[in-house]
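EI: anyone free to look at a 348-residue chain?
SC: sure, send it
EI:
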Amino acid sequence: MLRVLIKIKMFSLVLVMLLVGSAAWATDDFAKLRMMGRFEVTPSQKASFTWPGSTIEFNFYGTEASIEMSSEQRVRFQLTLDGLSRDLWLEPGTRLIQLAQGLPLTEHTVRLTRLAESFSGVTALQGLPEVDGRLLAPPPASGRRLLVIGDSITAGYGVEGESKDCSYSQDTSNPTQAYAGLAAAELAADIHTIAWSGIGVWRSYGEEVPSAPTIGERRRLTLADNFSTIWPVAKYQPDAVVVTIGTNDFWQGSAPGYQAGMQALVDALQKDYVGAPIYLVASPMLSGEVRTDQISQLQALADEQIQVLDLGRIEADDGFGCDWHPNVVTNQRMANNLVAKLKQDLQW
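SC: here you go
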């Protein structure tokens, strides 16, 4: 009986060591990747993500590279290989994706960015990239960090559309071409884009009475539609927080619950990101008295840490993206204004 107990204890110890070793091995291997955004990582080397702009980047020595990924739906990505970008569509299911082939035998950098919004479903990295040479140390972080919270404007809804007459499509939506994505690229800053089309801080588009989850609720999540995946805020502490929310709250021209909703949001952000400046941005899609009302309500929240920014609105000569959204012209102007402000305040 004693021998049996000893054997059981030894087996349990070995099992624990194997499990711990497996978890550590997965963590070490994922260190070869630079993952920007919110990822739900498991010890089995699976990294799930949903937020637009989530990015995987790695360096390798060799001539070709592929990666195994899964997706619940058809999802648009941007593949950047040695600085040159193109679209890559991830089909539903799990498959090995060819990222590069026939390259010169030297060092290369691959960057894979999700362009689709979270409601297009969960995508997941199923393991490390497969290369014919070797993985190298990942590209270094810049040391600059932005957290941007918003709705369709921040997600880049219709930014690549030709006019207001087109509706939502992954083909024309691109967070890297929205004001925040453009600003982050200009500043060489990492960015977490927490954006969901149609959402508000008090109510969402089309709602008479608030019922859908608000941005204040979703911004706490790792996977944007899975409320069991709470994001650990200590994992990413930004140098600045940019909030562009309110277009949908004011969809009927007034928003009696907007200021209280914004107050609750900024209170939570100040608690999570102590000392980080928070910029509340006026909607470029609102105009006239409604826009004046939004700015007035935002100004009521301003203090030493909170500033209200007017980065500009859609002008007649700009044209429109899909469904009256800001196009590349408006977004670039907004990005230029945001870059100037952040450079001034953060000494970047």
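EI: The two ends are 69 Å apart (CA to CA).
SC: 👍
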